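call fold(seq) -> tokens
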Amino acid sequence: MKSALTAIILGALAIPALAQMSPLGLWRNVDDKTGEAKAEIRIIEAGGTLQGKIEKRLTRDAKPGDVCDECSDDRKGAPLLGLEIIRGARKAEGKDVWEGGKILDPENGRNYTLRMTPIEGGKKLEVRGSFGPFGRTQTWTRVN
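ret:
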């Protein structure tokens, strides 16, 4: 009885830790060149895949009416605030990696193959966008 209770308590304590090892939540990304915080992106699960939208813009020159002029798909002309930049990522079997989706760079309108890996106990998220053999990785920081 005592060991069963201990197992239940330990199991309940482990649930928040497991939940953190996922891309779900609110993340802050930073400009690669300036080191300035750019945006906060909320990643949610919808229909079995992950999607991420810009929830808050943090750059000094951000204007409320800014739209995605460079986008060439259904997001062309859409407001940057609320813009869906992550689509279709799924958890890789047996790994804490989400891939198979796309990430949009609203500055150039390009979609890149996406790979997201929680690191540092889920406090940070490595976000890799690639096009063929080329790509770059950003480290996003969990806001909540």
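The first helix runs from residue 2 to 20.
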